[in-house]
Amino acid sequence: MQLITQAPSEAVATSSAALELQQAYDKYSASYDDLDGGAAADALGFPQLRAQLLAQAQGRTLEVAVGTGLNLQYYSWAAAVAAVAAPAAGGADADDAGAASAAASAPAAAATGGVTSLDTVDLSPGMLAQAQARVRGSPSLAGRPIAFQQADVAALPYADSSFDTVVDTFSLCVFPDPQAAMNELARVVRPAASSGGSGGGSGGGGGGGGGRLLLLEHSRSDNPLLAAYQDATAGPVAALGKGCVWNQDVEGMAAKAGLRVTRVERFAVGTVELLVAEKRQ
């Protein structure tokens, strides 16, 4: 585990709205898992969805808005990485057991190669501290090549086309400028492998051997009545739900960022979207 430090923390935020978000999540950090990783999330099947999504991560991987590290237990590591830091027998903790259960329900063929390194960023130092504590307390994550860095998703500190996989889960809805965030995710992911495959969309298959963006997000439902309800309640829901705007057009934002959506699945009556996309050549 590696922590990349930078100071002062306020200098990382690219706007006053981002600074407010950072300060709010610093306050939430100690209790955040009660909301995003608690009983309600379990009842909605979120652990299984995280496992299903993250089984597809491979190569050099970036997770933005890593938060308290709820996703870390679900990554499948490349064989060479896993062999270096295999967990001690009998050392599994509750997180490890939960991840194993969720992973059992994910498609077995989803992972092809596994993650070789994992860079993570978050705007909130408090959230990053919780994520690092999770790694220290989890035998299955001990020794894995995971780096933590404070950064604003609107200005990621990486060169273009740096990553094979870029991940975001349940965070697009809280970013002050979600389109700017999506543009940055598209910038740092590698382009799709050159192939003669046709365009994707709902129900489409996964991409080829190039980079991919993996998203699990709150989104505007494809049910017209529920979508209208989301539109009418977006303000109050954001006020009560830590700023989450739950009626965003995630596919539309991906398209505007120059991404080609290759797979979409909807859950929770269409209000949660699992999306796989790739950057056009």
List keywords for this structure.
281 residues; Methyltransferase type 11 domain-containing protein; 8-stranded mixed beta sheet; globular; S-adenosylmethionine-dependent methyltransferase activity; alpha/beta; single chain; 18% strand; Methyltransf_Superfamily; Rossmann fold
Strand-helix topology:
Blueprint: E1 2-4, H1 16-28, H2 32-36, H3 39-43, H4 46-54, E2 59-63, H5 79-84, H6 94-104, E3 115-122, H7 125-136, E4 146-150, E5 165-169, H8 178-188, E6 212-218, H9 224-240, H10 250-256, E7 259-267, E8 272-279
Parallel strand pairs: 1-4, 2-3, 2-5, 3-4, 5-6
Antiparallel strand pairs: 6-8, 7-8
Helix pairs in contact: 4-6
What would you note in describing this structure?
This protein has 281 residues and is of the alpha/beta class. It has a single domain, classed as 3-Layer(aba) Sandwich (Rossmann fold). The chain has helices at residues 16-28, 32-36, 39-43, 46-54, 79-84, 94-104, 125-136, 178-188, 224-240, 250-256; strands at 2-4, 59-63, 115-122, 146-150, 165-169, 212-218, 259-267, 272-279. An eight-stranded mixed beta sheet has the order 1-4-3-2-5-6-8-7, with helices on both faces. Helix 4 (46-54) packs across helix 6. The chain is globular, with a radius of gyration of 18 Å.
State the helicity in percent bands. Answer: 25-40%
User: Briefly, what CATH class?
Assistant: Alpha Beta
Strand content: 15-25%
The total tally of domains equals 1
- Along the chain, the helix and strand elements come as EHHHHEHHEHEEHEHHEE
Radius of gyration, rounded?
18 Å
Number of strands: 8
Residue ranges: pLDDT <50 for 5 or more in a row?
A: 103-111, 196-208
- Which structural category do the helix and sheet elements fall into? alpha/beta
Shape: globular
CATH architecture tag: 3-Layer(aba) Sandwich
Oligomer: single chain
What is the fourth-level CATH superfamily?
Vaccinia Virus protein VP39
Q: Strand order, biggest sheet?
A: 1-4-3-2-5-6-8-7
* Mean model confidence by pLDDT: 86
Largest sheet: 8 strands, mixed
Within the CATH hierarchy, at the fold level, what is the topology?
Rossmann fold
Cα end-to-end separation: 33 Å
